[in-house]
Amino acid sequence: MDQNETIRTLTTYEDLARRTVQTLVRPELSDDTVLEGCREAAARGAAAVLVRPSDIDAAVRCLDGTGTAPASVVGFPHGGSTTAVKVYETRDLLRRGAKEIDLVVNIGKLVSRQFQFIETEILQISRACHESGALLTVTLENAYLGEDLKVIAMKICKRCEADFVKTSTGFAPPCAPGGDLALMRRMLRDVCRIEASGGIVTLDDALEAYGQGAERIGTECAAAILGAWKARLEALAKDASITE
C-alpha cells in the first residue's frame, strides 16, 4: 500500500473478516479450546487461524473446506531457535498442511546487529513458504527494537519478499502501535503488507489499527470482534432504514 493511498472504508462484514487472524498460541490452551477456536473463527469467516505447531494437524482437519487458512508459528515466541531448526519446522508444518507461516525474527541477533544472519534466515524460510504456495509473516517484536532496527528489519523483509510484517507476538511488553504502524506503512508500502497484533481486544482496537495502516489484525479475540462488527453493521443498516 502506498503511503499516500487513502485507506478504503470498511463497509461489509467480509471487509474486516478477511483481514482478521484468530491467534490460538497461548501455552495453556487445551486441545478442545483450540478446536473450538478454529470452528468459531471459521464460522465467522476469519482469514486464518494461527496455532501452535503441535496443533497444526488438528487445525488443518478442522478448517478443511472452510475458506479459513490453517497457520502456525516458527521460532516462537523469541526467535532464538537455530536456522536449521526453523527451516525444518517450516517444512514440516507446510508438509502437514499449513497455508501460512509466522516466523519470529531472531531478536537477539537483530539487536546484536547481525543483519546478514537475519536476512539469510528469513530468505530461507521465505523460499520454503513460497515454493509451497504458502504465505510468510515475519514478526519483528517491535517493543524490543529502536526505530533504526525496525527500519533495517523491514528493509530485510522487503528484500526477502515476506508477505506480511507483524508488530508483535503478543508476548512482549506493550508498545505504541500507532507510531509503529505509521512507520511500517511508510517503509513497507508496495512490497509487504502489515499485520497488527498485541493488545487488540475490541472492535474499536481493530478498526483503529486498520485505520493506521494495518491490513491484517492478529488477535485472540477475533470471533468476538467479528461478532461485534456484525452487530454494528446490522445496527447501522437498521438506523439507515428508519431515516429513509
- Count the domains: 1
The CATH homologous superfamily is called Aldolase class I
Q: How do the SSEs run, as a string of H and E?
A: HEHEHEHEHHEHEHEHEH
Helical residues, percent: 40-55%
- Oligomeric composition of the shown chains: single chain
Major sheet: order of its strands? 1-2-3-4-5-6-7-8
The biggest sheet amounts to: 8 strands, parallel, barrel
- Class inferred from helices and paired strands: alpha/beta
The tally of strands reads 8
Shape category: globular
What is the CA-based Rg, rounded?
A: 18 Å
Q: Spans with pLDDT under 50 lasting ≥5 residues?
A: 1-6
CATH-level-2 architecture: Alpha-Beta Barrel
Report on this structure:
The chain has 244 residues and is of the alpha/beta class. The chain has one domain (13-243): TIM Barrel, CATH 3.20.20.70. It has ten helices and eight strands. It has helices at 13-17, 31-44, 56-63, 83-95, 107-111, 115-131, 147-159, 177-188, 203-211, 222-243; strands at 20-24, 48-51, 69-74, 100-104, 135-139, 164-166, 193-197, 216-219. An eight-stranded parallel barrel has the order 1-2-3-4-5-6-7-8, surrounded by seven helices. It is globular. The protein starts with 12 loop residues before the first helix and ends with a helix. Mean pLDDT is 93; it is low at 1-6.
